[in-house]
UniProtKB/TrEMBL annotation:
CDD domains: SQR_TypeC_SdhC (cd03499). GO terms for biological process: tricarboxylic acid cycle. Keywords: Heme, Iron, Membrane, Metal-binding, Transmembrane, Transmembrane helix. Coiled coil: none annotated. It comes from Alsobacter metallidurans. The lineage of its organism: Bacteria, Pseudomonadati, Pseudomonadota, Alphaproteobacteria, Hyphomicrobiales. Its cofactor is heme. This is Succinate dehydrogenase cytochrome b556 subunit.
Length: 132
């Protein structure tokens, strides 16, 4: 068996040059990235709580940073990551029930995830700015 003269062609492993990324694959990667961003972004909540617990001066410093342009962009990104991850979790819950496995349903749910997360994030921020 070791000295068999017939060599078989083995398939190439898929790589980026021959593999086409699908929307659902990109959404899976983005779901993992937003999960990591939420993990790091939760430190913002911890900093805010520490600032609030340390007294008026510490709280004022945290509020000053969160009110700056950079702080607002970070909070906007955190809001989007939270909403996007939440909708992605609902999408996975639908799959756990056994629904939405067809190609068209998967693509539609991925598109709804993107559109819904953007629309809901903007809506949340518009309402927050009006109430503010």
């Amino acid at each position: 068996m070791a000295d068999s003269p017939v060599r078989t062609q083995r398939p190439l492993s898929p790589h980026l040059q021959i593999f086409t990324p699908y929307l659902t694959m990109v959404m899976s990667i983005l779901h993992r990235i937003t999960g990591g961003a939420l993990y790091v972004g939760t430190l913002l909540l911890v900093v805010w709580l520490i600032g609030a617990a340390s007294g008026p001066a510490g709280y004022a410093r945290v509020q000053w940073f969160m009110g700056s342009i950079i702080g607002q962009l970070i909070l906007f990104g955190y809001t989007w990551a939270l909403i996007h991850h939440l909708i992605g979790g609902v999408r996975h819950l639908v799959w756990d029930v056994g629904l939405g496995f067809g190609p068209e349903a998967r693509e539609n749910m991925a598109r709804l995830n993107i559109i819904g997360s953007i629309v809901l994030t903007i809506l949340i921020w518009v309402v927050a700015l009006i109430v503010r």
